[in-house]
Amino acid sequence: QHAVVTDYSDAVVLDTEVVASRNRRIQEIGKEKVNVLHMIKDFRKKLSLMDWEQKMLALKMEDLEERTKDVHMLRVTKDLQATLKGGEEGKNKHESDMLERKIEHLKTTTKQKEGQLQRQYNIVKQQRKVKEVENAMLERKLRELQQNVVQREHIRRLRAPQAGGGGGGRGAGCTWIRMPRPEVHCDQGGGDRSSIQR
């Protein structure tokens, strides 16, 4: 294949300043078009806002017309007449008095309940003190019983027969005779009284 050769026979040589000026002109035209687009956008935005305001005003006018019809069709009752003539203040005063009486009743009931709870608390506190004294007494009795158990266990071990030694050793060949051992009696007070019977 032959090498690709660029043909510059129809090329035109231009000064760089000419090319730069053309580029600047193109950028200026682009900016002008962008500004025109922004203007169109703002104008449409204003149109949309005006359209919304017009619809809102139309709805308000319709609402006012409906309210006017309701007022014309309203039946005037005695309560309404009293309210229009200033009877609402008396009604509010009556309701206020009722609320004040309810508040006073609630205060009285609350004080009574507080007194009852205080009395119950004092009773429980007194009972707790009594229980603490009883628990202390039971603790002392428990320690005394434990000491008695230890003493009785010690006496039981003393009463238990001692184990005999095996054959062989000193005394081998002799005949051993078991003699009755002394009996030890212990009274309930913890004192020892020994009596030897033979």
Polypeptide structure, described:
With 198 residues, the protein is mainly alpha-helical. Helices cover 69% and strands 4% of the residues. The longest helix has 72 residues, at 88-159. Residues 163-198 have low confidence and may be disordered.
Strand-helix topology:
Layout: H1 16-73, H2 78-84, H3 88-159, E1 183-186, E2 192-195
Antiparallel strand pairs: 1-2
- Unreliable spans are 163-198
Helix coverage percent: 55-70%
Strand content: under 5%
* Sheet with most strands: strand arrangement: 1-2
Radius of gyration: 59 Å
How many alpha or pi helices? 3
**Terminal CA distance:** 148 Å
Tell me the series of helices and strands, N- to C-terminal.
HHHEE
- Describe the global form: flat
Structural class designation: mainly alpha
Q: Compute the number of strand runs.
A: 2
Integer average pLDDT: 78
For the largest beta-sheet, the strand count, sense and barrel status come to: 2 strands, antiparallel
